[in-house]
Amino acid sequence: MKKRQLIERVSKEAEEDHAQPRLTRADWLEKALEMLIQNGIDAVRITRLADLLGVTRGSFYWHFADRNELLEAMLDVWQQSNTASVIQAATAPGTLQDRILALFICWLDPELFDPRLDFAVRDWARGDAALQAVIAQSDQQRMDALIAMFAAHGFAERQAIIRARNFYYTQMGYYALNVREPLSVRLSYVATYFETYTDEKLDPQAEADFRQKVIARKELWGDERIPAR
Amino acid sequence: MKKRQLIERVSKEAEEDHAQPRLTRADWLEKALEMLIQNGIDAVRITRLADLLGVTRGSFYWHFADRNELLEAMLDVWQQSNTASVIQAATAPGTLQDRILALFICWLDPELFDPRLDFAVRDWARGDAALQAVIAQSDQQRMDALIAMFAAHGFAERQAIIRARNFYYTQMGYYALNVREPLSVRLSYVATYFETYTDEKLDPQAEADFRQKVIARKELWGDERIPAR
DNA sequence: CCAACGCCATACAGTGGTGTATTGGAAGAT
DNA sequence: ATCTTCCAATACACCACTGTATGGCGTTGG
């Protein structure tokens, strides 16, 4: 699901025409998420957001009771975006190859899975046990979907777990290190990773289709969406 | 290298008797690192540290010029602890098996590699390009050591890179997700992971020795060093 | 023994953030 | 055409934190 849609849904507002003269709850929420991603939760200050939005704090306190309400809305957006995308890809119709490639798409398209948001939320949870529990639950849901995917294609329980962990942890590690590689380089690793995870060869035709699909999508998200973090 | 030693070295102070009536630069630094790990860089406030140390801020401004000097000292400690441990393990004498196991020890012993510090520093770098560059350099050094390790034991260039990435990213992903497992569970995965990374069987005797070694070390770091993050 | 140094307390000025109360004004509804 | 409703500006009280200036006091060395 598109993030802006989610933001508006969480804000309980209908999607309206752009170029509004006044702000909506969703506008504040969007800016706050942007701030969270770029500078961490402690940078999400009402004063600062008001400056960026070109209004005073008076506006904020009309849309939200207080800062806490904003934070809760932000968490709602996260909960309903990244995890849902992973699970959807892992349970996609088709062969194991189809599903793995769907997951690779997920890893590559920030509209489906935004690693910056994911890690910003994880950092946010530092020192907050309740939030950590929420995140752990989401991780468990993602892992369960991945384990089920491998298990459904012939891997025994323990093997499915190890493969799911390798698959998921490797990708999270990649994000955690904030690696910055051009898309072409990432694409060149796809076949090798696929074989590592599945012990099968990746069908060359499928790989070609995948490349084309990703490049077509890339047009949509624009050129430089590689996170500066 | 032990972290407290490093802290004192960075503070340019000799190790003294405990139970000092007055504080040293190292005491402030240690508390600040603790705060960074538990609550992030934005929680590293002079006022708060002073409260925790039971003194007023007057003490701080005797030991440090300003907050910035403290932050630089904290970064020095990180630079000289985690990365050094990884490189040392990866270049340890012996077979590939010896080195991999040395790295596993690293992953398990927070005195050698403290993942909480590592990720706290990564989070700190959010929105700070200069700091990101420092971290990227450390990551590169670690990766180079791992690639060289695999290459030195017969893996071709590309294979060595993929294996090093899998090895390192998987572990970083594990830490990033803040997984909390008992030591016994982690130990039970060692052999399987070893085989995944090397395509060799882990010598049962070596595995037994490893278990014993880790458990002996565990006595040293105490029981509950599993990060609450 | 007392003088200098090392470490800390106190007081002050300044900044940036929160939340509340009140007022102002433009768009839609009737 | 006026009357709500929605959104934003302004003003106020309050708190957390930084950094500086200065004074106090115990410890140590000459």
Write up this protein.
The structure is a homodimer of 229-residue chains. Chain A is an all-alpha fold. Chain A has two domains: 3-68, Orthogonal Bundle (Arc Repressor Mutant, subunit A), CATH 1.10.10.60; 78-221. Chain A has eleven helices and no strands. The model of chain A is unreliable at 14-19 and 223-229 (pLDDT under 50). Chains A, B: Residues 22-82 form the HTH tetR-type domain.
Q: How much is the radius of gyration of chain A in Å?
A: 19 Å
Strand content of chain A: under 5%
Main sheet attributes: strand count, strand direction, barrel closure of chain A? none
Distance between the termini of chain A: 22 Å
- Our count of domains of chain A comes out at 2
| Element-level helix/strand string of chain A | HHHHHHHHHHH
SS content category of chain A: mainly alpha
Q: Quick one: which chains have the greatest interface?
A: A-B, 38 and 38 residues
Please count the helical segments of chain A: 11
